[in-house]
Design goal:
The complex is a heterodimer of chains A (370) and B (648). With 370 residues, chain A is an all-alpha fold. Chain A has helices at 11-23, 30-38, 42-64, 71-79, 81-113, 120-137, 139-164, 181-190, 200-203, 211-240, 242-245, 251-256, 272-299, 308-319, 325-369. Helices cover 73% and strands 0% of the residues of chain A. The longest helix of chain B is centred in the C-terminal third of the chain and has 39 residues, at 547-585. Classes of the chains: A mainly alpha (370), B alpha+beta (648).
Amino acid sequence: MSTLKLSRMGLTDGIILIVFLSISRFFLITSTEAIKLSAGLAWYLYLISTLVTLIIGLALINILKNFEGDLLAMTERLLGKSWFYIIGIYYALLFLSNCTVLTRKFSENIAQVGFRDIDIIVVIFLYVLIMSISTYFGIEVLARGAYLLIPFIIFLTAFILVLIIPLFNVHNLAPWQGTGIGNVTLYGMASAGANSGVIIIAILAPSFQDFITKAKSVFYGSIIGGLYKMTCITTILLAIGVERSKEMLIPFYELASLAYFDKSFQRFEDLTVFLWIFVGLISIGVSAWVTLYLVARMLKLSDIKPLIPLLSIIVFSTATFAENALSIIDFDLGFLKIYHGLSMYVFPIILLFMFYKQKLKLLFKKNSAV
Amino acid sequence: MSQNKPTPPRTILFATIFSKLKKVLTYEPANKPKPFILEEKMNEAAETNIEDSQLKPKSLVKKTTLKHLVSQAERTLEYSKDAASYLEVLKKEIIKTKTKEDRKSILKKINYTSSNLKKIKNSITQPLTSFDNSLPAEKRSVSTSLSENKELLRNLYHLPLNTNLILHDFVIKGEIPLKATLVFFDGLINKEIINTSIIEPLTRGKNTLLTENFFPENNAPTQAALSILPSHITKKIDSINDVLSAINIGDSVLFIENSSEAIIVETKGSEHRSIERAQVEQSIRGSQAAFVELLDVNIGMMRNRMPTNDLISETLPIGDRIPTTCSIMYLKSLANEQIVAEVRRRLQGVRTDFVADLGMVEQFIEDQKTIFMPKTLQTERPDRVASYLAEGRIALFLNGSPFAMIIPVSFFTFFQFIEDYSMKLPTATFTRILRLSGMFIATLLPGIYISLVYFHQETLPTNLLIAIVNARQNIPFPAIVEILIMEIAFELIREAGLRVPGLLGATISIVGAIIIGQAAVTAKLVSQIIVVLIAITGLASFTIPEYRMATTLSLIRFAFLFFGYFAGFVGIGMGLFLFTMYLCYIKSFGISYMAPLGAKTFLGSDLFIRNPVYNQELRPDFINAKDKRRQPHISRTWEHEEPVNRKK
């Protein structure tokens, strides 16, 4: 057993971690991708993915309550030592890839908007540097910081969305059925992998007080994250329309550029920089910390701090690996979609199956004994 | 030859790099005890620890000395037995006496017996003194020999170098007159008390006790003196350490010949500043009194304000060479015992020669010592301390400091002020939000301006942009230099205003700001817009009620200025992110610095919005007071009763 001690976390921490991990990709190209897939029903795509996340997350937490410890401890009990490592490595790589891809994509956005004359490597370096510092502070501090920053995020989002209202055109949602309800439902289920951050509650299970806290964290975290994405995507669709939205590269920034109050107050798009920084850095920091935690957990290390420089080098190297923004987008939408999808469906379902199999076995034994 | 050859600098550099690299690669977590983090549930461990530590015997006496003491005790017992048998014999003989000659012979016998007993007595006390002599002076007991006590004090206080220590010799009148010495520090005592309550009664009154006790027991002289002195200001002591502590704080110590005890007489009366109006934290509606430099007066002020037996004021010395009295004050029924025990532990663990100010105490006992944010609140207002104590917090006082230190605190505590409680909801909330906005403005405004000017010009309204461009047209410096010139000038004026005494300071601040601002604009060193910007920033920083917090945020303002200069909104955003994480990382005595927001606890109604006092039913959750409820759900009970004129 690893001697690494987890700090105590509460319901708010749990909710906030899930919300940030689930909304971080929304500020990137994924929202454009969602519109491409489902047209006017993009909000429905997010609804489905949220519901799937909710079901899987709650099911996982529900079986976890029968075991002491975290997801890996449960895996070890249900599937054995080798699966302990398989799942540990899988999720560590999931969070590492999340960390790397988010670093690169947010850096691209920042460089495009805020640092036009500066090389992307400098921005990536800044991101990685801050990621290292925040990882050093720990998950508890990241969660608390996220809670303090959420009012700014909500205020900035609401400010932009409210100013967009005059541009709303309900007909922009047409065709009402998007690319077809059936298709969008399938796309929604397939894109649930983007919400794989919900697994964090199972990974950090010992931090949370009880089953109710964990279940509530999953429930509220998924719902709030889903509502945020649905509201924003509906606003984009209502204000910009399906066809124009499909061409957006930095969706939220382009939406913000349309916000107008009067001749003295306009051009608010640069404010989205704050959104990218807050949401991006917290998601990257949390992903980095969870990666290191999983490594420390598997290798039975007592502290993750010595691993931070190593992780920073890995993240920096891999984030600068892609030649341009498009290749990283392709990588994210292609390989990682499958990888994240597997993490949401395959492993939780295997664990669920094994748990009920064992339960049935026990029940059968009991009955036969009677 | 070669042995004396100095190591080349390159080798040293290499060795240093190697050792640092090795340290990183072979990193091991420091084997430190776990930091103090307040647990939600109270356990009894802390309580038991305190009791254990209090009961723990001081192992000053070695085994050999213990043996010696036992033999002394045995001899004393023998002495008492002998004395009792002699007295019995005498009693019988007195009863038998009839003539004058018989009485004379008995008197002779008595004199002979008493001289014998005295010899035995001296043989008992003498070795004890000699045993004591081997100990450090501070650890000795009071000797029965007056001259020995005086000699000891002369040595300890380096007389005649030290001219303030007075050793006043006199005689206590009575059947058997007793030599006595009163020791005190001139300048620390109240001369009137010395004359009227000590010298006069002891020298003029007649001591009847001494005539009755023909065979005085060891400390009968002390008892005799105590019967004359006013009892409420006296206390018996027998160790030199207590004698020194009493003299040092302004009490007088009375030594009497043939007594192994001394008497402390409370004669404190040094000159001190009288209670005045608060200078740093002025209030319009709250109390006007402020603390003074004398600990006793400050504690008295608090007791006066909170007349309850629940108010505990523990005192303990800090400083090994020059101990300064520190007091921990809390309400027993409210303060979290873990925090009280932790504060006590930390104070007892301070090893230094001298602490001059509460700020120094803070640095010795705070968590995460390298963090520059203030982690305790210092106030000069007794009403503010009282309100914090009533919340379940702890106050620290230090003799010589006119401030009290409040622990634990959160970041938001620094933006609350006692006046908020005297005002109604809208005004109090408005003032509080104004202060918090002041904090944001004081920290971020120059940085945001620089970001807008250098990176995000399009965000500015066109008219404003044109105004800025026009104002800056003839300025030879870039905007960052303009801001730095004005910021440094402002900080200089502020510091000068604080250091220059009285009205002159205020005049320098105002005149200096106007003249320098105007002159800088006329000389085209800075633009008008920068003067306005820095003035707003400065005003905003003055809205923060705690001076140390305001100063710290001023420093952070410079950091944000450079973040904005180097990276615009990206820099400001990253700076804000790091600053938020940093704030969440800090702990004040085991409590999260950003509570009740991060860590999230029950918000209550006293954070941004200050609800009416009758709605503030619960104490701040994060303090973990023993009793969370401040008042019942219905605190205005009279509303549920019949008015006086309608009562049957």
